[in-house]
Amino acid sequence: MTLSASLPLLVLALLIEAAFGYPQRFYAAIGHPVTWIGRLIGALDRALNREAASFALRKTMGVLALALLLAVAIAVSALLQRLCLSFGPLGLVPLALLASTLIAQRSLHEHVARVAEGLEQAGLEGGRKAVAMIVGRNPRTLDEAGVSRAAIESLAENFSDGIVAPAFWLGLGGLPGIAAYKAINTADSMIGHRTPRHLAFGWASARLDDLVNLPASRLTALLLVAAAALDRNVDAGGAWRAIRRDAGKHRSPNAGWPEAAMAGALGLRLAGPRIYGETRVEDHWMGDGRAEAKAGDIRRALALYRRACGLLWALAALLAMVTLI
């Protein structure tokens, strides 16, 4: 698929997902493409990741598992894309519907908004319950500020790897591009951890995920800076200064960019030391503002996110028009 076809596909997919999301009745009936990918990853993990094997062999098996996963994802999506495009220009509509299932603008907004609602309506316990649905850290260790920061950090990071990165690879490679990206990203979330079982087996997935997210994380930060420049209630200059000062200090090569931009724009400090399960993770702070975030700050972050999504649509539409000229 050429850029002159994949970019209009991207615009249509973004608008469809923003308007409708992924209906809950579909999820209840047939699951979701990411859950299907996850089942395949789980099967490969059980079949190829043998605890008795050497570190080197488990690392090799992890590379093989990733290759098999990508082969399936690309082959199936390429077949579906070819089938849709066999109907001519009208085939972009069902193709965009398929692609929209791998973007998460609407669901991310809904999940983060529930944290603000939980804090506002049911206090700390309501916020903890809602934030536990979107972050891996131990909610019992979080006070109101911790819950609020966790929600905002999740919004910033997932804007990059749940929306901008899928959009980037959809625009570049059509349905196979976004399917390959989601396969890599899901593999990283499932087996890319530094645990005894997955340190070797998940090495390839974690490293490749870092690589494919690199361009989108920088683009996400720029979108947030641009969105901040359109909002008098946030600080675009602060966002830019936080990116330049703090983004490279994050333990993740990518997450620091959107988190620093969000922190600087809102006048907050994000990231920093956190507890996942029973493990304390030391990390640098992003931003130099206040750490005492509240539900109102989550609302401000969501407003900034909506503007940044709008800029992403505009950028995709502009690029689509340029390629058609």
Automatic annotation (TrEMBL):
<feature type="transmembrane region" description="Helical">
    <location>
        <begin position="304"/>
        <end position="324"/>
    </location>
</feature>
<protein>
    <recommendedName>
        <fullName>Cobalamin biosynthesis protein CobD</fullName>
    </recommendedName>
</protein>
<keyword id="KW-0472">Membrane</keyword>
<comment type="similarity">
    <text>Belongs to the CobD/CbiB family.</text>
</comment>
<feature type="transmembrane region" description="Helical">
    <location>
        <begin position="60"/>
        <end position="80"/>
    </location>
</feature>
<keyword id="KW-0169">Cobalamin biosynthesis</keyword>
<comment type="pathway">
    <text>Cofactor biosynthesis; adenosylcobalamin biosynthesis.</text>
</comment>
<dbReference type="Pfam" id="PF03186">
    <property type="entry name" value="CobD_Cbib"/>
</dbReference>
<dbReference type="InterPro" id="IPR004485">
    <property type="entry name" value="Cobalamin_biosynth_CobD/CbiB"/>
</dbReference>
<keyword id="KW-0812">Transmembrane</keyword>
<keyword id="KW-1003">Cell membrane</keyword>
<feature type="transmembrane region" description="Helical">
    <location>
        <begin position="86"/>
        <end position="104"/>
    </location>
</feature>
<keyword id="KW-1133">Transmembrane helix</keyword>
<comment type="function">
    <text>Converts cobyric acid to cobinamide by the addition of aminopropanol on the F carboxylic group.</text>
</comment>
